[in-house]
Specification:
The protein has one domain: Rossmann fold, CATH 3.40.50. The relative contact order is 0.14. Helix 1 crosses helix 9, helix 3 (about 65-80) runs parallel beside helix 4 (about 105-130) and helix 7 packs across helix 8. About 50% of the residues lie in helices and about 15% in strands. The chain has helices at about 15-25, 40-50, 65-80, 105-130, 145-150, 155-175, 190-200, 200-210, 220-230; strands at about 5-10, 30-35, 55-60, 85-90, 135-140, 180-185, 240-245. The protein is built from nine helices and seven strands; from the N terminus they run E-H-E-H-E-H-E-H-E-H-H-E-H-H-H-E. The chain has about 250 residues and is of the alpha/beta class. The chain starts with 6 loop residues before the first strand and ends in an 8-residue tail after the last strand.
C-alpha cells in the first residue's frame, strides 16, 4: 500500500492501459478518479476496484472539452481531495492513424493535437494549483511512433512528440514545487491490439519481431507499475521519457 492516502486522476481509464493503471494505483492504496468519454466503462472499472477493497469514483469526461476536464478535477476534489497524481492517458478525437503524410490535412492535425497535446496541457494546468503547495506526480503518455516515426502516422506521431516537449518544459518550470513530470511510451497488448492482431496475424508477427524481448507488454504487470514507481521510488526522476516497449526503440 505504497500510495495510501494519495489521490490520483487517470484519464481514458475505461479500458486498456488506463484501466490497468487505475486498478494498480488503487491496489497500492490510492483513491482514484477514473475519467472516460464512455461512462459505462469507467463505472465497471470502479466496481472492480471497490470489489477488491479500493476507493474509486467514475466521471464522464471527453478530453476534447476543457470544461469536462475541469469538471473531472472538481469531482476529484469533492470525492477525495486534491490530486497527488495525474495520469494523462486519454487521446481524444481523431488519432490520425493510417493516413499518409501528404493526406494529413490541417483539420486532422488540429483535432489530433486537441485530443492529445491540448487535453494533456489543460489537465496539467487544472491540477497545478492543487499540486503547487504539496508536490505531485504527472505522467504523460507518448509513443514510439513519435520518437522513431512510423509511416502513415504523421499526425499521431507529431502530436505525441509535442507531448514529450510539454513534459520537458513542465519538468523545468514545476520542479521547484516538488512536481515531477515524465512521459511513458508503452507497447502493450491491450484489448484493441489483440483485436487487430486477430484480424492481421502477419502484422502481429512483424510487430513482435521488432521487439527484442519478443512480446508486447502486459498493461497491468509491465506498464502500470512504472506509474507507481514514478510516484514513489523515482521521485528524483523528471523530464524523462521511459520507453516501456521491450526495447523496440532505444534512446541515445
Amino acid at each position: 500500500m505504497r500510495l495510501s492516502g494519495r489521490v490520483a486522476i487517470v484519464t481514458g481509464s475505461g479500458q486498456g492501459i488506463g484501466r490497468a493503471v487505475a486498478r494498480v494505483l488503487a491496489r497500492e492504496g490510492a483513491a482514484v478518479l477514473l475519467a472516460s468519454r464512455t461512462f459505462s466503462r469507467v463505472e465497471q472499472v470502479v466496481k472492480e476496484i471497490e470489489a477488491a477493497g479500493g476507493r474509486a469514483r467514475a466521471v464522464e469526461c471527453d478530453v476534447l472539452r476543457a470544461d469536462e476536464i475541469d469538471a473531472a478535477v472538481a469531482a476529484c476534489l469533492d470525492a477525495f481531495g486534491p490530486p497527488d497524481i495525474l495520469v494523462n492517458n486519454a487521446q481524444g478525437g481523431q488519432k490520425g492513424g493510417g493516413i499518409p503524410l501528404d493526406e494529413s490535412t490541417p483539420d486532422l492535425v488540429e483535432e489530433t493535437l486537441r485530443g492529445g497535446l491540448f487535453a494533456t496541457l489543460h489537465a496539467m494546468q487544472a491540477c497545478f494549483p492543487h499540486m503547487k503547495e504539496r508536490g505531485g506526480t504527472i505522467v504523460n503518455f507518448g509513443s514510439s511512433t513519435g520518437v522513431g516515426g512510423d509511416k502513415g502516422f504523421a499526425a499521431y506521431g507529431l502530436n505525441k512528440e509535442a507531448i514529450h516537449g510539454l513534459t520537458k518544459h513542465a519538468a523545468r518550470e514545476w520542479g521547484r514545487y516538488g512536481i515531477t513530470v515524465n512521459t511513458i511510451c508503452p507497447a502493450a497488448l491491450t484489448e484493441n491490439v489483440r483485436e487487430k492482431f486477430a484480424e492481421n496475424p502477419r502484422w502481429q508477427q512483424a510487430i513482435v519481431k521488432a521487439v527484442p524481448l519478443g512480446r508486447l507488454g502486459d498493461p497491468e504487470t509491465d506498464i502500470a507499475p512504472a506509474v507507481v514507481a514514478l510516484a514513489t521510488d523515482l521521485r528524483f526522476l523528471t523530464g524523462a521519457t521511459l520507453m516501456l516497449d521491450g526495447g523496440r526503440v532505444l534512446l541515445r
